[in-house]
Amino acid sequence: AGGQGTAANTEIQKAGDGGPGVTSDITGDLTFYGGGGGAGGGRTNFEVGVGGIGGGGNGGSPDFAFPLNKGSDGQPYTGGGGGGGGNNVNIGGAGGSGIVLIRYEYKVVQEGTIFLLR
């Protein structure tokens, strides 16, 4: 993980947010991967947690909220965590699929000799 998420705050009745993912510029653009999923709402946390940057899903709503929402899935190709479920009614989201990026050096040969063998 790139950083820690936030803890739930019962004073404002909010569930914890997911932490940020790690950054990489392997694609040529600085991108976050592996953000944490937000916590689901509950009896003391009416507002759900928000997913962390890097593909984390948002938490599910508590069982008395309207509309009832399950935890959202992590974003595809980021490896982000799914949002947590809300109470025992709204299930958590699935984690986002991962991605494998391979960097390699590409060299063009400018000089050389070609032999024809028979």
Give structural notes.
Helix content is 0%, strand content 5%. It has a two-stranded antiparallel sheet with strand order 1-2. It has strands at residues 22-24, 31-33. With 118 residues, it is mostly loops. The chain has one domain (1-118).
How many distinct helices? 0
Strand order of the largest sheet: 1-2
Percent range for β-strand residues: 5-15%
| Extended strand count | 2
| Overall average pLDDT | 90
Largest sheet: 2 strands, antiparallel
Q: Cα distance, first to last residue?
A: 59 Å
Broad structural category = little secondary structure
**Which regions contain 5 or more consecutive residues with pLDDT less than 50?**
none
Provide the number of structural domains: 1
Keyphrases for this structure?
118 residues; little secondary structure; 2 strands
